[in-house]
């Protein structure tokens, strides 16, 4: 999923650049179609595991909308290959590429929203690991007798 999303700006640039070389559009459209297939699979998995359920629905919907945008983009690329001098089709291709780029940003925001819970768990686990390490260090020093007791109690009494 991330590979497709990270490559899309490159595709956008290449698609708009290929307006002057329409023979390159077929290969670009084919690559984008393959990459979108991988994104759709990963998006389905992300939507199925997202919490809350609304985030999963949002991921699924936005990936589908991106797919529709990609379809229109491929269709415009094909139309430009058929008639490479048509300036109207060139403008439509560029507009479709911009629309796909906008849809990618929506997919990214949905994926990031679904990732907040995961990131919170990672942060909490890291904090707990730090506390455990601090406790282990304190136990080590207390066991060695290097900590000053406030009264005549031993560490073994509190352990």
UniProtKB/TrEMBL annotation:
Give the residues annotated as coiled coil. none
> Keyword Signal on this protein?
yes
Compartment(s):
Cytoplasm
Give GO terms: molecular function aspect only: actin filament binding; integrin binding
Q: Which residues form the Vinculin-binding site-containing domain?
A: 15-116
Where does the record locate the signal sequence feature?
Answer: 1-18
Q: Which GO cellular component does the record give, naming just one?
A: focal adhesion
Q: Which UniProt keywords apply?
A: Cytoplasm, Signal
Biological process terms in GO annotation:
actin cytoskeleton organization; cell-cell adhesion
Enumerate the PANTHER family for this protein. Answer: TALIN, TALIN-2
Name by which UniProt lists this protein:
TLN2 protein
């Amino acid at each position: 999923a991330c590979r497709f999303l990270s490559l899309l700006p490159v595709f956008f640039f290449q698609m708009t650049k290929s307006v002057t070389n329409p023979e390159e559009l077929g290969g670009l459209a084919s690559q984008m179609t393959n990459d979108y297939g991988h994104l759709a699979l990963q998006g389905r998995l992300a939507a199925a595991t997202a919490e809350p359920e609304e985030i999963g629905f949002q991921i699924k919907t936005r990936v589908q909308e991106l797919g529709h945008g990609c379809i229109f983009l491929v269709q415009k690329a094909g139309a430009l290959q058929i008639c490479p001098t048509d300036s109207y089709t060139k403008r439509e291709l560029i507009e479709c590429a911009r629309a796909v780029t906008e849809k990618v940003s929506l997919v990214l925001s949905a994926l990031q929203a679904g990732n907040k819970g995961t990131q919170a768990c990672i942060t909490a686990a890291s904090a707990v690991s730090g506390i455990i390490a601090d406790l282990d260090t304190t136990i080590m020093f207390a066991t060695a007798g290097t900590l000053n007791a406030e009264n005549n109690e031993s560490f073994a009494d509190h352990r």
